[in-house]
């Protein structure tokens, strides 16, 4: 026989064979009897790996390798590489359990008493609006069970016979294994029931402040049936079996608001007890010592008796260090730290799930994962390749990306990660990080000298957010963390925030920020954040949350070194940026990067000197990847990452003079149809002017005349002819209007022309500003 306690860094779980509960060991003339505790260990040395069944002996100071081990492995472990510890069999709390149960009196199940909390149905529509539903056909065995169940409920007083009504519900039988159960379809009644505010506390908030070394879980029997229905609305919950009608006198299962009403009732009973938490009919009690736990159990069991709440002792577990509660495994360590992890059965189901072959398989697989998504750091991102196949018009196609996501999710679940309940009295810390495609955050709490994770969250960035600068993404990661953990970080005296992006530290004291960054910082001001920079290699959890290998497919381009160097050189010759580069603090929003010596505006926009504009615009607009964007899109693209004076005017001129755009691009709008000029309101209110040339030159009043200015009244067709020279200019036109036309006919409302230079000169525009017509 081989005897061992525990090898170094190995967690040991012992078991005791039922056929041989004790073992006798003979050593040095002594005969000692121990509990026959066994453990199967897997361990390795530098050159060998072993798996063997050992007998655990308490209070042993040496390691004994028996002949069974030598015969099996033909080797002996090097003793100098093994450490030994002592272990004791688990304590026996049977006497404490018996003492606690003496305070609970299991009264017969009966109709509960009237209470102020009796539930009242409130409806949005009258019961008469419900359509009668035919009974569900069932086999003979199910019919017999339904009748037997109705008789049992009648004997307990939970239901009573009632007159036939048209709004009855329909019961049917479900089989959970070999055990049948009556289920009533209350969907029609639920559709017109006013919902109560949700009083069901989320699990992660429910376990807040749990701290202790020993636990018990309680299960209430017939939970909802402990609450009465108000007599005025009992007939609302009517159901039909065969030709008979029955209505509930207690709160039924399946009715809307049943869970909320029961939660409010239980909360009122145990509101002053901080050591017990209820989730519907499941309770957990956590204490620091066995003696304290005994007193806590007595208090809870006494209240159950006083309020006529029935305990299912068979499904309850007492004085445990690890319990299964509300679909989670809750463990207590000797130092009082609680850890929460998924159930082994849930992990095993996911690990053994076959590769999906259709959309329904994906839905089933994601359904298993969704229940424990809080334990998967980057759940939304890892499952995205699978969930994308569930689109309405998406054809099922299992790609390498899907297989990688499926494999990674199963491998991640095999690690059985654990979280720890939040404690308001312990210090907290946030670690944040941002990658090119996501942001991640982890909430930690300091237990003794160790930071343990409470929650972790990640979010894939949207399309627009992917264009943000690194600084914006890193600050958004902090904003994201505070928003997600607001329930925990609100009203804290100090919140440590660790980030691996050093500029974030000085950002909180900077005055030269963009409007977006200022708005985000304003949202963070109410929280007492203390920002610290840490090396990226030490920011593992948050960094891992934000860096998603499935989506890290990027093509990035970096400007050549000489081009960046030319920017620094050309700053001195730029008429605007030269003075700013010499003293960035003189202008708001400008700063110089200490490493590259490049000038930035608002910390994210690279300043471009005039001598480099042509090269930049060619790359942005006219390169093969530029696509010859229009003015608006080119400006939008440049504004995100670059800055230079008169940006809009320069871009408009550059795009407007682009030869390719002028020759190839079509008009963005179709030309309008020809329209007749509306009839003027009166004589000389609307005139038309034009120049007729090509005549022979003749002398006239000391000048040479070879053209005629024609002015036509569009109302009466009255025409004036003014002799002019072919060198006719805007000054001559203004002189004719002011000296000859306006004195005779007044100022017209509209003047039509062919847009000749003498008619459209800026001086004429100023003169005729109030006379312009929108169609001119």
Q: How does this model look, in words?
A:
- By secondary structure, the protein is α+β, with helices and mostly antiparallel strands.
- It has six domains: 1-90, Beta Barrel (Cathepsin D, subunit A, domain 1), CATH 2.40.70; 127-336, Reverse transcriptase/Diguanylate cyclase domain (Alpha-Beta Plaits), CATH 3.30.70.270; 342-414, Alpha-Beta Plaits (2-Layer Sandwich); 428-546, Ribonuclease H-like superfamily/Ribonuclease H (Nucleotidyltransferase, domain 5, 2-Layer Sandwich), CATH 3.30.420; 561-664, Endonuclease III, domain 1; 686-771, 2-Layer Sandwich (Nucleotidyltransferase, domain 5), CATH 3.30.420.
- It is built from 26 helices and 29 strands.
- The strands form nine sheets. The chain has a five-stranded mixed β-sheet with strand order 19-18-17-20-21. Strands 11-12-8-13 form a four-stranded antiparallel β-sheet.
- Helix 2 packs parallel to helix 7 (290-306) and helix 8 (344-351) runs antiparallel to helix 12.
- The longest helix has 17 residues, at 140-156.
- 24% of the residues are buried.
- Its main location: cytoplasm.
- One of its GO terms (cellular component) is nucleus.
